[in-house]
Amino acid sequence: MARLIPEATIDELRSNVNILDVISQYVQLHKSGKNWFGICPFHSEKTPSFSVNEQKQIFHCFSCHRGGNVFKFIMELEGLSFPESVQRVAELANYDLGISIDNSENQNETSENGKIRKLYKETTKLYHHILVNTVLGEPALEYLHKRGINDDLIEEFEIGFAPENNILEAFFKEQKLYDYQILRKSGLFIERQSTELVERFNGRVMFPIRDTSGQTIAYSGRLLEKRDDAPKYLNSPETAIFNKRKVLFNFDKAKGIIRREKEAILFEGFMDVIAAYRSGIKNGIASMGTSLTDEQIYALDRVTSHLVICYDGDNAGQNATKRALEIIEPTGKFSLEVIKIPEKLDPDEFTKKYGSEKFVELARNDRKSPLEFYLSYYEQDKNLNNENNQLEYIRDILQEIAKVRDPLEQDLYLNRLAQRFNVAKENLDSQLKQIREKIFAQRAEKQEEQSYQAQQIPRTVIQKNEVQHFSKAEKAERLLLYRMLHDKNVWLRINGIPDFNFIHENYQVIYNLSEAYFDIHDEYEVADFLDFINEDGLRQVVVTLEMGDYADEVSEQEINDCLSLIMSQTPLEDKIKKVQTEMLEAKRQNDTAKITKLTMDLISLLKEQQNAKSLTI
């Protein structure tokens, strides 16, 4: 399809975005030598074979052979068209393309994911219209108003209502969006055994879940009336465009405010986020009902280094807070604070009971350090007048103090423990040292293991790469093509040889493409050249060339050797045709001796051809 984004804009984005920053949001990478290595996101594997070259801005997997530049990575991983991938890369890198693009119609025509996104866009409009403009939506509208969600918030979050009766199939047919296979994959329907499609959300208030660009990709629907046969909240299943591990509720609206305020507030659910938004706290996000994932942590790390956890005040919420701290603290990416809602309330309940101003005051001024949180948390269900409970509590707190790197903070909390329980600080200090020694030993063991794995990665990649054997002639072709692409003098020299051709067609095609590329580019950039190539197979050849271990310096002798070897090799088919032509001429001349010799040559060539074919099967 024709590109919807100007070529200059694509080039500028590619030049300003580091592929490592984008891929690191999906893959844990370890540096070894010039490259970064990790587990391939495109297929299941235990041994890392996925490589990123930051200097050349390309990736390559030696197992599944996928490779390319940053746009190709996103296209492959998220199933997007090229224009969609350009926009997605810009979002991931927080880069302003500087242009306004509405390509929803083209998305609908080009990719499966684009068609699903179109369904969600139109469904959100429909549900929102039903809520705010129809009799069907009046009960849901009344419910929301009672919950303190006014019309402005309804509009801001595009909240809607899915009525009891099925309406979507007819609506999509009317909008000319009906495609049975797309509908069944969208997550909007449940497919019965009879291939009948039944709407997933009926009789529910619909809260859109959006990606970082603000496009709806899923829903959370709440029943208006409690039913024994259905859950109160129903979330969309995972689809081609929705992975709950990667999505943070309200991140699209909050990310700019998070950057400005230099902190994000992590809530337990989306109703809490909306309640905080209503109070004026607009840097709130939620993790879709799951524990915070690596992908979500990467997303937050790109916009802030400070997280505030504000989960429900009941025991379940405090347990969730502890789990969140245990996930986030070891990353070392954030400074952390905790807000505990009093009276075991959640943020929405607290706001209703005490008002928005009190909630803002609580959120801004009543924060605790993680250690302060643990002092309170470990008191749950303990009678601290009981000596056994006291000992258990002290051991729990010492485990947390041991993780703190600041000796002053450690000393402060040791003093507090000693004073509270009337024990000698020296005894606490002795216990703490033993715990820290165990923690350090575990860390050292883990670091040693990671270091060993990092050292093994290049060997693994080399072993996998060795499976691909090349003849001497093909090795010469690959080396010469690599030199031609990277050295304009070599390219000009080969280009000046009238009868030069590569033996294998794929190298010849890349050579021909490079002629067109150099007509409009003065310098060779592999990430740019990959977008110049339309065929995936040829892209993979270029990527594997770039991942090859070639010396930095080029010599005239090296080029001469490559040329000599390539030009002395004539493809078998040409040799066979030549012998057959000579045999016809020998027969016309009735040259028996020559016929016999040529026959033996032909048999030898045909055997060689047969062997070559059998090796490729």
UniProtKB/TrEMBL annotation:
It catalyses: ssDNA + n NTP = ssDNA/pppN(pN)n-1 hybrid + (n-1) diphosphate. Pfam families: DnaB_bind, DNAG_N, Toprim_2, Zn_ribbon_DnaG. GO terms for cellular component: cytoplasm; DNA-directed RNA polymerase complex; primosome complex. SUPFAM superfamilies: DNA primase core, Zinc beta-ribbon. Its cofactor is Zn(2+). The keyword ATP-binding does not apply. GO terms for biological process: DNA replication, synthesis of primer. It is an enzyme of class 2 (transferase). Binds 1 zinc ion per monomer. Keywords: Coiled coil, DNA replication, DNA-binding, DNA-directed RNA polymerase, Magnesium, Metal-binding, Nucleotidyltransferase, Primosome, Transcription, Transferase, Zinc, Zinc-finger. Residues 414-445 form a coiled coil. Residues 262-342 form the Toprim domain. GO terms for molecular function: DNA binding; DNA-directed RNA polymerase activity; zinc ion binding. CDD domains: TOPRIM_DnaG_primases. SMART domains: TOPRIM, ZnF_CHCC. Its EC number is 2.7.7.101. The keyword DNA-binding applies. A zinc finger (CHC2-type) spans 40-64. HAMAP family: DNA_primase_DnaG (MF_00974). Monomer. Interacts with DnaB. RNA polymerase that catalyzes the synthesis of short RNA molecules used as primers for DNA polymerase during DNA replication. NCBIfam families: dnaG. Contains an N-terminal zinc-binding domain, a central core domain that contains the primase activity, and a C-terminal DnaB-binding domain. Belongs to the DnaG primase family. This is DNA primase. The gene is dnaG.
